[in-house]
Description:
This protein is of the alpha+beta class. The two termini are 32 Å apart. The chain is built from eleven helices and six strands.
Amino acid sequence: MIRLKLLPEKTKFDFFSKARFFSVISIVLIGISVLANLLFGLNFGIDFRGGTLLMVQSEKPVKVSEYRQVLVGLDLGDTSVTKISDPKAQISGGLIDDSRNIVLIRIEQQPQKDDIENDKIVLLKNALNASFGSINFLQTESVGAKVSKELVIKGLTSILLAVGAVLFYIWVRFEWQFALGAVLALVHDVLITIGIFSLLRLEFNLSIVAAILTIVGYSLNDTVIVYDRIRENLKKFNKRPLLDLLNISINETLSRTLVTSITTLLALFALYLLGGDVLRGFTFAMIWGVLIGTYSSIFIASAILLRLGVKRDWSKPDNEAGTQFSEFDT
């Protein structure tokens, strides 16, 4: 039986020989993310800005420019038209005919108007039917300005609560140095993920918030695996220098970390290529999150632990550190 091995059974990589380099890289990425948010902000979707999203299908091919000409004459405010393409047709290089003729029409909520203007939606539907014949309206979603503001608050609250829950769990499960390292690694991942969306001007909507929460869970899972091995080795090699012990622990979990990340990425890349435009933003956030989460689990969380130091005698629980629960099984 042939087994595929990405790494040898035992590795001896020195993950801290370039610790300063990786720290500088992370600080630069966070700085770029913060600067991008200050300069450009996030390209909020209708979920957060308010407005209407229509997915329409025509019997015959209609150019995006023709849709835009109809929208200009209706005085609907800020609008955008995006063609929904068939991923299989894109990959085949034209061998598969993309004849679905589907477009997304986004109408942003008018300033100083909290209610959804249903009469304008009806006007748009009538204008499209009059211009292009029979139009099939596959999906219509509307979000008012008040609701969108609530969604922004709830989205941010959910992320903060998730990070706070992680801080409490790791503190109870290990001790405060581990908790602080895990939370700083998560903040690192979230800030850089939000920054890439701001920099590339990708749409930021509720599905991206869901992706960020998933990234928090994925990154935490990787970090806890590494931390659990560190704790086991702290009991086993309590006289060994902390730097050597951290390297041993990361090497022992490296194969598991990389295999998990690669298998997850294979599924996500398939979804990104074949899932269509509607899922593309979510899958892009997930792909980026898996990459940055794997990086932070190896190079950031453990490096923070090295800087903070950690208790070396784990034979007795420390009630003040929260480690009285440290014998719970994972």
